[in-house]
Every structure is written in structure tokens, then in C-alpha cells.
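Structure first, sequence second, as always.
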């Protein structure tokens, strides 16, 4: 029987995609259904049919999976964030580990077993950063998150993943918007002032940064906004305007102006103190970040006399947590603001054996190679796209004893590990770390050793 749009079919879900949709097979064709759990038996209503696959929505759950639970969030069916609110956490961890394992085998063609996944102790309120798109209609501000694969805002100030202070901050922004008649940015016309509301929190210090991302240079009645935020947000340390006048879907612009308090907030990781600015990269889950960095240090296996190169170092977090155990730390990062933060982080932690270079990773590694600097250990924490071939070539030419690769995308990790293997660096251990519980994202860390 052929499959067509608006058909209703019985389907057994047997797997999950990287975006969190359930997958079943109908006459050999893959059918993707969001909100399903492996072992669900359902009636699916087909809403899209292409040559090789179909997309459906749940019409009826005939027999629920033993791993299915009731979502504790009223927005999860509409929001594009949490894909696993209706799944037991043990099943979520099982899936995430298998996803890393599958990528290593299928994409990287590697014969290695992923260690036991490092799960989270806390599933709610763990995010130290939130970026809320906004829409203002008749003076009322709606802030939340985009629906799955759309730019339609689902109002959600009280997201389960965010700390309570962020919800109070949204309430303050709403009162300010109501009283000032501020406009929201329209992607189609490029007009309107307020684009996003952005919060950061230092979980160890309790310090909060509130940021308005605007399509302009100033906001109306900034004193009112400051007053409302100070009255409503416990731990408020900084109020910032981020200027983004470009017609782009990139959230933050390059320029930030502090209108109250400090330019930065502070947090602590593994006994080190870090300053964080609006544009700085900083892991969003404090407790899981400490577990991840501890695993990085374990894989680095430091003895005390090494030169450690931290590529994509951001504000220096990974390298500085390990600086006490090495002879010299060198960090490389392309964002100038992050490099200044890294230098300041070294200073406030009395780290005197660190230097930081502002360059992209390939050029920075090339600079070291040309100067004859040979690191013993290299830490790689690239963006989602992974490492390009030029960087892999340069890093392997530096001839470190070990490479520790931190990845937020299993597919690019697997691809890169295969390229490293072709350059005589073999992955010996891989561990998955659940940095983002209830979402489909998964972090992994790999230890590579030079093949003798």
C-alpha cells in the first residue's frame, strides 16, 4: 500500500533521530513523528510525504511505551526545545550514548566502545543562559522560544530549563515594554527596536546579567527598566544593551553597552573564578560542565611538566582549570573580547604560566608551529561544525603526545576522529556527557594518542 498525505497508519516507533523525533517503518519507509518514544504503538496522521520518507503527527497512542512518561511542561508539545520531556531519563541517556556510538561506527568507521554516559543530577533549572525572542503586540510583550522548525514564538517565560530569576526578569521587561510602548523587531521589514531578551547567571556566585538585544543605539526610559530589573531579579549585577542592527538571524551584535552595574558577571568552576561578558562562550550547565572538564583533565593525564595548548579556548575555562598541573598553558581564540576575559581570568586566579593569543584556531596553531613551540597536549573544543582539514593537519604537525577533543556534535566528532586516525592519532577513549538534559543535544569527549 502506498502512503499519501492525510493517511492514518498504525506505526511502532523503534528509534529516535538526532532532533528527537521518533522513527517507525511503514512498508520499509521511514516515518518521523515528534513526541513519540521507542516502543510506542500509535496511529500516525501523515502530514508530509516525500520520495524517501514521511512525516506524521500522533493521532492516537494505542499502546504507550514502558519508557513513556507524562510531560511536566505545558509548552513542550509546541516548543522546539525539550524533545524528551515525555521519556524516562534512563531511556534518554541510553539513546544519547547510542547516538555517539552509532556516529563513531557509521561515520568514523571506528572500532571503539563509548564509556558509560555521564548523566545529570538535575534535570530542571540548569541553564545559566537564555535568549528569548520577543514579540510586542498592543503594548504586551510575548517572550519565549521558537516552535519546532519555525520562527513562530511560543510564549514561555517560565521554561523548566531556566532558573527562576530569568522568569522574574521577563516580568520586569514586560512591565517596561507596557509603559514605554517600545516596539519589537520585525524580521521581514527590519524595523522595530527590541529583538531578544538575554540573561546569564553565575550559578556558583548567583550573579545575573540582563541584556536587551536592540536594533538601535538606545532604549526609551532605561532608568525604568533598570529599576524594574533591580526590584525583581535577585542577584542582578549587570544590565547591558547589545547593539545588533543587521538584518540577520544571528542573535548578538558585536557591540555591548553597560547601562547599569558591571560589564561582566562572575562564576566559579573547579575552584577557579571566571568573568563572563555578553558575547563570551561559556558552557550553559554549570554542574555538568565541572564533570566534563574533570573528564578532560583525566584524559589529558597531566604529570606537571607539559605545555598545554587550549584551542578554541573561549574565556579560558578548560585550560585555566588545568593550569596548576602544567608547565605552560597557551590558549587560542578568535574573539578579542573572550581573549581579554581569558587574560583577566588568569590574573584573578593568580595563574602566571598562561598566555593567550587572539587568532582563529588554524592560524594560531600555525603561529606556534612557525615559532617552534611543540605542545605536549592539545585540547580541542571546536564549534558544532568541527575541525577543518587544515587545522587537523597543523595540530598533528605539532606532534603532541595526546589530543583531547570536546565535541557538541557526534557526527563531526566521528568524521574528525577518522581524519586524525589517518594522521596517526587514534581515539583510545570516548565518553558521552549529558550537558543538556531533556533536549536532543549531547556532548562527548575523546582521548587521542599518537600511534607509535
Amino acid at each position: 500500500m502506498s502512503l499519501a498525505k492525510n493517511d492514518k497508519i498504525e506505526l511502532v516507533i523503534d528509534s529516535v533521530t538526532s532532533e528527537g523525533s521518533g522513527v517507525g517503518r511503514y512498508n520499509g519507509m521511514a516515518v518521523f513523528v515528534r513526541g513519540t518514544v521507542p516502543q510506542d504503538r500509535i496511529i500516525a496522521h501523515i502530514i508530509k510525504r516525500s520520495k524517501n520518507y514521511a512525516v506524521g503527527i500522533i493521532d492516537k497512542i494505542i499502546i504507550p511505551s514502558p519508557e513513556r512518561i507524562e510531560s511536566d511542561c505545558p509548552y513542550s508539545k509546541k516548543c522546539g526545545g525539550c524533545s524528551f520531556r515525555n521519556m524516562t531519563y534512563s531511556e534518554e541517556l541510553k539513546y544519547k550514548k547510542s547516538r555517539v556510538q552509532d556516529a563513531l561506527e557509521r561515520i568514523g568507521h571506528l572500532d571503539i566502545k563509548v564509556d558509560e554516559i555521564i548523566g545529570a543530577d538535575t534535570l530542571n533549572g540548569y541553564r545559566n543562559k537564555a535568549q528569548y525572542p520577543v514579540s510586542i503586540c498592543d503594548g504586551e510583550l510575548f517572550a519565549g522560544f521558537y516552535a519546532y522548525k519555525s520562527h513562530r514564538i511560543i510564549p514561555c517565560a517560565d521554561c523548566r530549563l531556566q532558573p527562576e530569576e530569568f522568569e522574574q526578569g521577563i516580568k520586569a521587561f514586560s512591565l517596561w515594554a507596557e509603559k514605554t510602548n517600545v516596539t519589537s523587531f520585525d524580521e521581514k521589514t527590519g524595523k522595530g527596536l527590541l529583538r531578544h531578551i538575554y540573561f546569564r547567571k553565575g550559578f556558583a556566585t548567583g550573579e545575573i546579567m540582563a541584556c536587551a538585544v536592540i536594533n538601535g543605539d538606545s532604549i526609551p526610559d532605561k532608568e525604568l527598566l533598570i529599576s524594574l530589573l533591580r526590584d525583581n531579579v535577585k542577584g542582578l549585577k549587570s544590565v547591558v544593551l547589545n547593539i545588533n542592527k543587521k538584518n540577520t538571524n544571528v542573535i548578538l551584535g558585536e557591540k555591548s553597552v553597560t547601562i547599569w552595574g558591571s560589564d561582566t558577571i562572575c562564576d566559579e568552576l573547579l575552584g577557579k573564578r571566571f568573568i563572563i561578558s555578553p558575547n563570551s562562550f561559556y558552557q550553559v550547565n554549570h554542574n555538568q560542565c565541572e564533570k566534563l572538564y574533570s573528564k578532560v583533565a583525566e584524559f589529558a593525564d597531566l604529570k606537571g611538566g607539559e605545555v598545554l595548548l587550549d584551542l578554541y579556548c573561549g574565556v579560558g575555562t578548560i585550560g585555566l582549570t588545568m593550569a596548576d598541573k602544567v608547565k605552560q598553558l597557551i590558549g587560542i581564540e578568535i574573539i578579542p573580547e573572550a581573549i581579554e576575559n581569558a587574560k583577566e581570568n588568569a590574573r584573578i586566579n593568580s595563574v602566571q604560566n598562561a598566555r593567550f593569543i587572539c587568532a582563529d584556531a588554524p592560524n594560531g596553531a600555525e603561529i606556534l608551529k612557525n615559532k617552534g613551540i611543540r605542545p605536549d597536549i592539545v585540547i580541542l573544543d571546536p564549534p558544532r561544525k568541527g575541525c577543518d582539514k587544515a587545522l587537523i593537519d597543523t595540530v598533528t604537525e605539532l606532534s603532541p603526545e595526546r589530543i583531547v577533543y570536546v565535541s557538541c556534535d557526534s557526527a563531526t566528532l566521528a568524521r574528525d576522529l577518522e581524519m586524525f586516525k589517518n594522521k596517526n592519532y587514534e581515539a583510545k577513549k570516548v565518553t558521552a556527557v549529558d550537558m543538556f538534559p531533556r533536549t536532543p543535544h549531547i556532548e562527548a569527549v575523546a582521548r587521542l594518542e599518537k600511534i607509535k
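Margin note: The mean pLDDT is 94.
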